[in-house]
Every structure is written in structure tokens, then in C-alpha cells.
Amino acid sequence: MKTRLIFLTFLVFSVLSIKAQCNPTITSPRLGVKFPDKILFCNVEDEILSTQAFGSYQWYKQAWTWQTPNNNPWVAIPGATSQQLTINGNDQLYYFKVAVTQGDCTAESPAIMADGFVYGLPAMMSTYTPGTYEEVDLGVVNVCNGASVKFDDIFPVVYGNHTWFKCVPGSNPPVAGDPCIIAGVNGDSFTATETGKYGFYACTEYCPDQCEMLDPFSFVQLNFGNWEFCENLGTGETKQKDNNLKIYPNPTAQFLYIGKESDKVYKEVTIIDMSGKLVLQKNDHKYNQAIDVSHLVPGNYIIVSKGSNGNVYKNKFIKK
Fold it and tell me: Which N-terminal stretch is annotated as signal sequence (predicted)?
């Protein structure tokens, strides 16, 4: 009886051991360094995904989407039937998992994601004091003397050290001594009080050797002066031209709303990418209708809206 009991105990522990082993997880050098369950690539260097030892393996990948739930299919990776899988930066924006077998046990690992957020191009937000400025052209703004304009990197979590400019630098990357560089400023924001064309160059915090220049098209030209619309500052009156609309949500992944109720209808709505290419145009658009921008490539865009009264509005938005 004692011998039988010992045998049964050994058998139970053996079964539990097999079941415990049939619980695959994925490990890799970059996994979890910045965010749990994510691998962030600095470039296209290889990354090796590994799991525990099992009888057989099949690795799968699934394309990322902003939609919830993710309805993209899991696809078996041809030839990926070993304990390890090698991926690289070209595999960013995919989920990965591995299915394993051990004896009569079959199981799948939790999914992990290969992310590429560190490649997000820089974008700049400008903050003006109402009544102290007038936009005279796309990216050109007249500002009253004594006022200020605050510029912010929209993605400070991505970028670390910044180099700010008061004109477009002569090279990318900029070289020391370039007269456009604003000395001693390396944070993710800058407040301008004098005429110049402002933008920045920044290096990603996670990948310090990976740096990006704000597109010169997105630099903002400020012209400080005693403009006519500045004459009534401090009197409670303003002659500021109303050339901006409320747009929301911003950033957006799918739907964008524009407008103010007083306009009712916009004769024409045009979306332009940062290279100047027309990517979407709508006629007779009602102010409370959604504009589907899900097909646009993630990045920065200009939206130009022409009201029924002839007013033209220009806004920037970010497609996620």
C-alpha cells in the first residue's frame, strides 16, 4: 500500500509538472524595457523572441489596428516552427504569439507587440494669446510687440534633447555654429518674443542616436510689430481675424469634426498633407458631420474650410 501511494504521488506530481510546463510565455531583450508586453525598435536590428522548451512550436503574427477589438487575422509565419523567432524593425506594428504542444497539451502564449512609436515624426503646437496675433498665410503669423508665442513638441514622451531654431538651418542634422540655432535651449518647449521662423530638431529619448528634423514646411514664421489690430489691446476690443475653427478630436484615428454652428455649411473642405499634396476634398459639408480620415497615413495635415459667407479657415490636425 505504501509503495502504491508513493507511485500515485509521483504520478500526480509528474502530471502537474507537464501541465505547468505547457504555459508558454515570450521573452526577448527589448521586451518590457519601456512598456510592458511591447518591443520598441530603434532601427532594423534583429530581435530574437524565445519561449520555453516544448515538443513543437508555431509562431503567428497579427497586424496592428486602432480598432477594438482587433479583427485582423492571426497568420501562421511560414517556417517559424522552432523555439525562437527572429524579427526586426520592419516587423513593427505587429503582434506575435506562439502556439506549442507538449505531450497531449496544446497552449498559446500571451501576445506581445513590436511597436514603432519611436519613429513618430515630430510635430509642433503653437499657443497664442487671443487678440495679439493674426495669421496672414499658412504658417505665417503677425504678432503684437510685447506678446509671446509658446511652441511645444506635441510628442514630448518620444523625444528627449531638442535643438530650437529661429530660422531654417542650413543642414539636417544641424551643425554647431549654425546661426539659426537658439543657444542654450534644449527642452520640449520654447517661448518666442521676436521675429523669426521657428522649429526644432530632436532626438528620441528611447533611442538617443535617432533624431528627426521638424519638416521646414511646419516651421512657423512670426512677425512681431505694431500691427493695426494691436491698437485696441487692453481696451477689451479686438480686430483679430477669426481664421481658425474648432476641430476635434485632435489627434484622431478615424473621425474628425470641424466648425461652428453659425456657419452651418462649408462650401468646400480640403485636407492637404505636409508635402502640399491634396488628399481629401468635400463639398457642401455640414458643420456637425464626421469626416472619415481613417484612410490617411499617420502624420500631420492642414485642413482648409471655406464657409458659405466666404470666410476661409486653416487648421492643423494629427492623424494617429
Answer: 1-20
In this structure, what are the phi and psi dihedrals at residue 217, rounded to the nearest 5 degrees? Answer: -65, -25
| Among candidate residues 272, 319, 268, 264, the one with its CA nearest the CA of residue 292 | 319
* Measured distance between the N- and C-terminal CA atoms of the chain, rounded to whole angstroms: 69
Radius of gyration of the chain (CA): 28
Residue found under cell 497586424: 63
**pLDDT per position as a tens digit, 139-158:** 899 999 999 999 999 888 77
Q: Cα–Cα distance between 246 and 253 in angstroms, integer?
A: 17
Q: Which residues of 57-94 are buried (b: 16+ CB within 10 A; e: fewer)?
A: bebbbbeeeeeeeeeeeeeeeeebeebebebebebbeb
- For residue 142, list its beta bridge partners: 134, 223
Q: Please state the φ and ψ torsions of residue 3, each to the nearest 5 degrees.
A: -65, -40
Q: Dihedral through CA 164, CA 165, CA 170, CA 171, nearest 10?
A: 20
pLDDT score of 20 more than 50? no
Report how far residue 252's alpha carbon sits from residue 269's, in angstroms, rounded to the nearest whole number.
17
pTM: 0.55
C-alpha cell recorded at residue 174: 544641424
pLDDT at 225 over 90: yes
Under 8 Å between Cβ of 253 and 259 = no
d(C-alpha 79, C-alpha 85), whole Å = 10
3-class DSSP assignment, residue 22: coil
As a whole number of angstroms, the distance between CA 73 and CA 33 comes to: 27
Any idea what the Cα angle at residue 198 is, between residues 132 and 248, rounded to 5°? Answer: 65
Residue 208, helix vs strand vs coil: coil
In sequence order, the 6+-apart residues with CB closer than 8 A to the CB of 177 are none
Distance CA 202, CA 157 (A): 12
Give the whole-angstrom CA distance, residue 249 versus residue 172: 32
Q: Which helix (H) or strand (E) holds 7?
A: helix 2-21
Q: For the purposes of burial, counting CB atoms within 10 Å of the CB of 315, is it exposed (0-12), middle (13-18) or buried (19 or more)?
A: middle
